[in-house]
Amino acid sequence: MPISLDDIDRRILRVLQSDATLSMDALAELAGLSRNACWRRVKLLEQAGVIRARPALLDPDTLGCPLMAVVLIRTSAHDAEWRTRFERAVNAMPQVVSAYRMTGDLDYMLRVRVADMAAYDQFYKALTARVPVSDISASFVMEFLKETTALPL
């Protein structure tokens, strides 16, 4: 359920989306609040579930997984047991950075990070060994035109 945010809440969230490492003093200054007022607002945003976490964003090239694959999956099995097996397999594979159940012609879409094509092939074999699928195809990202974790406020 959407929460009602005022302009100050949005300002705080914009700043945190771009740099969650700022001290409370720096955040308060950018938000135009006292340190205590800013701290209270951040705590309320956390308690309301608006701020879920403050993770570090890592560089995939530096960490050896520069290749992004968008994997599209169709399945003929739609029963609860298959879905549970598929979800467990996807969650157990660190190469999968996001997974979505879709509407339309495709059943699932995965974003996968690997070192190279050989590593993708290993991923492909491991996934299809864990759960049967009707069709699986991948497209490989050649250039990132936009990639952000920031939500529109």
Automatic annotation (TrEMBL):
Is-annotated flag, keyword Transcription?
yes
Q: Which domain of life is it from?
A: Bacteria
Domain HTH asnC-type intervals: 5-66
- Which key words are in the record? DNA-binding, Transcription, Transcription regulation
GO MF terms, alphabetically ordered: sequence-specific DNA binding
Task: Give GO terms for biological process.
Answer: regulation of DNA-templated transcription; response to amino acid
Q: Which GO terms describe its cellular component?
A: cytosol
What Pfam families does this protein's entry cite? AsnC_trans_reg, HTH_24
Q: Report the SUPFAM superfamilies cross-referenced here.
A: Dimeric alpha+beta barrel, Winged helix' DNA-binding domain
* Designated name of the protein: AnsC family transcriptional regulator
